[in-house]
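Researcher: Please predict.
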Amino acid sequence: MINSVQAFFMFAMMAVNVNASQEKVLPTKWIDEAEMKLAQIDNYTSFFHKQERIKGKLKEEEVVFLKFKKPFKIYMKWVKDPGKGREALYVEGWNRNRIKVHDVWMKTNFTVDLDANGFLAMRGSRHSITESGLENLLRVLERDLCDRTQSTEFTYGELGEEMVYGRRSIKVEYLFPKDRTRGYYCCRALVNIDTETKIPIRVRIYDWEELLIEDYGYEGLKLNAGLTDGDFIMENPDYHFSASGRKAPSF
């Protein structure tokens, strides 16, 4: 039989282990590390994975080759169906802050300018292109995690190591109040933090019905990939914005 002294020390050791575990996944710590890393980064490339639930239906995963350069320049090319071959270019302050889009419909190439927050650009997406990028991802996480670190309304814990896109990561779970009126973005979040770069490379978001509503991932992330302003102009010879075909009007 375990005597009271032994029981006390066993309980004390359990408490230390729990506290140590929570220390490793403290939101302010890893987000600060990620922000410090990204502050040193001017540009990056990645295969961006995106799957969202729209109007109650979970859409097919989209895979997009993404180029990003500060302050806010982004080029995207869909490399798999749905949308294979589509291209989008958005540079803050250029083209009246519209997205330049190249696509194919009925075997016809066309280029169109879209309002970044308009119906056509937002159709089938939960977020505007202006919300893209790792910095914006961190900003959303920081709002709910760091700004409320002292709150007892949410809990978090480390779920161990997980390989994501061939990278070692720490998987962290965040559980938020069931009461959606509390103002949190979601009810549950799973975040995979790259053990080397400290940058989140996959985020899964669940709603108050425990349904997956957003799944975003950065595969093959290359930091300071050597991008130049020439990677963000429609005349780039690798892009098809100036390809022959019909030019649609702006929307």
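Model: Residues 1-23 have pLDDT under 50 and may be disordered.
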